[in-house]
Amino acid sequence: MQTSVTTLKLPADWRDFVALMKPRVLTLVVFSGACGLIASNTAMHPVLAFAAILAITLGAGGAAALNQWYEADIDAKMARTAQRPVPSGRMEPQAALYFGVAISVFSVILMELVTNRLAAALLAGSILYYVIVYTVILKRRTPQNIVIGGAAGAFPPVIGWAAATGEVTLLPFLMFALIFLWTPPHSWALALFGKTDYAAAGVPMMPVVAGEAATRSQILLYTLAMAMVAVLPWALGLTGALYGWTATILSAAFIALSAQVARRTSDAAMREEKQLFIFSMAYLFVLFGALALDRVMSI
Amino acid sequence: MTEIDEVAYRARQKSRAKALAIVLGAMVLLFYAISIAKLVINR
């Protein structure tokens, strides 16, 4: 008599598909995209505005899913990412790939339907940039991965602005530049206290390749450049005092924290580095919130 | 596949089907709302 044993793997849970979209990163994407849209001061039907933000969210989520599909091998080697759906084995890589492609394509079609071609093209460009330029080309090759790849995360306010106005002017460009210059100090603060993880996975993050001292100096340099860009909208008369003072005070605090990190040598606790990482997230949320509020109040 | 495996498998399928139904329902509502909004704007 013959017996056959069938082992069926459990299909991924729906929560795994949500996790694939990096929901914590998405909060910043949604917020900065909404701020770009609001800061444009353009009347937009609330349903279309909601759909435009949804398209930005799904586009970023799709790019994140494709990133996790491609990086499953290095994610498996890092404690911080080993429990993600694909490296942990809860989801088949192919499911992540199909999901990522499907929602990326859907997001661009949705954007085109509800807003305009420029916004849809920018959204498509940001997805391709994150997946191809950052994930496939830069991430495993150069310590500049975060610097050049950071542009992908800087797109949402520009897309939000373009969705509302159909054009890109100086202010959204400055919002882009702000996130672009904010990304290195933010990511390198994380890389400093997660250095061993990156080294184990063979990812050439700045602290792994150039050393901690060089990374700390670079953090301060990028922070200074970011602070200058942060006050530019006020200096150029594009915003009022609410944003101007918020940018000045928060940027001064950012510089102080970065200077503290730059002066230090390594220790196990990495307290200042963790402080800088947490502060950097609050910085962007408060600054963009102030910018949107300032622009709305100026009507 | 044991009986326990099969129960877990079916439960997972059911939960995914429910989530998908909710997403599809939300999409229908969204596209309906978008159509109405576009009609209002173009009126």
* Low-confidence regions of chain A: none
Beta-strand percentage of chain A?
under 5%
Helices of chain A, by number, come to: 14
* Biggest sheet layout of chain B: none
Distance between the termini of chain A: 83 Å
Order of helical and strand elements of chain A? HHHHHHHHHHHHHH
Molecular shape of chain A: flat
Q: How would you classify the helix and strand content of chain A by structural class?
A: mainly alpha
Defining traits:
heterodimer; A: 299 residues; mainly alpha; 14 helices; 0% strand; flat; B: 43 residues; 1 helix
Describe the structure.
The complex is a heterodimer of chains A (299) and B (43). By secondary structure, chain A is mainly alpha-helical. Chain A contains 14 helices and no strands. In chain A, helix 3 (46-70) runs parallel beside helix 6, helix 3 (46-70) packs antiparallel against helix 8 and helix 8 runs antiparallel to helix 9 (170-193). The N and C termini of chain A lie far apart (83 Å). The mean pLDDT of chain A is 93. Chain B is 93% helix and 0% strand. The model of chain B has no long low-confidence stretch (mean pLDDT 92).
Short description:
Chain A is mostly helical and about 300 residues long. Chain A has 14 helices and no strands.
